[in-house]
Amino acid sequence: xxxxxxxxxxxCHGDWENLTALQKGHKFFQEMADNNPRIKFSGWQQLVxxxxxxxxxxxxxxxxxxxxxxxxxxxxxxTKLSV
Length: 83
Fold this sequence. Notes:
Layout: H1 21-35, E1 41-44, E2 65-69, H2 73-77
Parallel strand pairs: 1-2
């Protein structure tokens, strides 16, 4: 989720209002999962993971999760490449 996604979106009221963009993404997919119990969700680790690598509080439950892809770029981000 982009860091500035939904930051100034006027549609974010109530429980959405004080969430970060990542938390709003988690909440969105959790609510979609709650309302569609027969669907399995797959995505990058940000679907369930916070920036500090902990699991979010409002995430799709394991029983509704298909695949979670981890970002190989995390290891690469700390590696300096010379060209």
